[in-house]
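Re: magnesium ion structure - here you go.
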Amino acid sequence: MTARILPPTDAGLLEAAAELSAGRPVAMPTETVYGLAAVATDEAAVARVFAVKQRPTFDPLIVHVAAMAGASAGDPVAALAAAGLVDAAALSPAERAEVAALAGALWPGPLTLVLPRGPAVPDLVSAGLPTVGVRVPRHPVAQALIARVGRPLAAPSANRFGRISPTSAADVLAELGGRIGVILDGGRCELGLESTVVAVGGGGPPRLLRPGATPREALLALLPGLVVGPADGAARAGEPAPAPGMLASHYAPRTPLRLLSGPIERVAAAELEAGGGRVAVLLQQGDAAAAAMRLTALLGQRPVVAALSAAGDRDEAARRLFAVLRELDGAGAAVILAEPCLDESGLGFAIADRLRRAAVAG
Ligand code: TXA
Ligand code: MG
């Protein structure tokens, strides 16, 4: 099987919806990264998603729902409870107000809320946890697909487990092309980083479980009591954890990635002296071509160099991060030397997090 890439036309949407209704996974675009979707209430279809991704069943999926309108938008918990997705009775009035504040300001968008699980969510979707992750994507193609299917869609990122999330239809094809039938093409992802995951409920303060495309500052402005888990508070592989996706090693290229602890010239030279082969370099910003020339003169080999954003623009750096990692991974280098993201304000928090996780595997 080789996946067909369908345009987001009426015919494409119809075919993708038919696949989903028949219980077959479909890759769909979202504003963050591409997801591998299945009807959330169809446990057999969800099982196929885990199989295609080779994802361990202790790692729960996010349920994607349609945008809410009218009274539902003002009371998202009631709307999610009516659909059987969330257990409203398990939330206190204060916690319901927290959900309303977050959802009201940030849905549709790159925010996943982990809430008490309702009866319509199969065990497999939430990995047996008493909670479920829910998000309203803002990508028009994702919204159209959910509306066409008429059911919520469970979708993890459309990559094999532990690898780099795809931000284009071509990336999905490279990751899963031989394992799925249909990829719905929605263009390159506007944000390029996964959603931020926040848990509400359980009696404690709301907790940020995974940094992502919604900056923590935006969350803190709404909920000053939000507890931000340490970005390096990663769980060990195989252990159940509050956010199983926070495994220390994740989002990893095949080529070992090392975070630079000193000037690039020194580290690259040491790498070559140690007998390393070709070097690839990820810069946070600046002129990649000029850096490549400088390093060529120094090392006697021309390294592959890419900068996340020439101008140092954070949005651009986030949008390009996974695509640049893929490009460098494909360069045939022995090692990727990556400049760390030192300014962790705004999207820098998530960029730094993803680079640390990409590095551990190396
Ligand atoms: O932007 C995104 O979030 C993308 C797009 C496709 O929506 N999806 C995504 O899914 O990144 P995935 O499966 O690669 O990551 C989902 C994260 C994981 O860290 C998972 O453990 C966490 O959300 N998660 C989901 N349900 C959870 C739950 N009930 N409790 C704790 N963490 C949960
Ligand atoms: Mg993922």
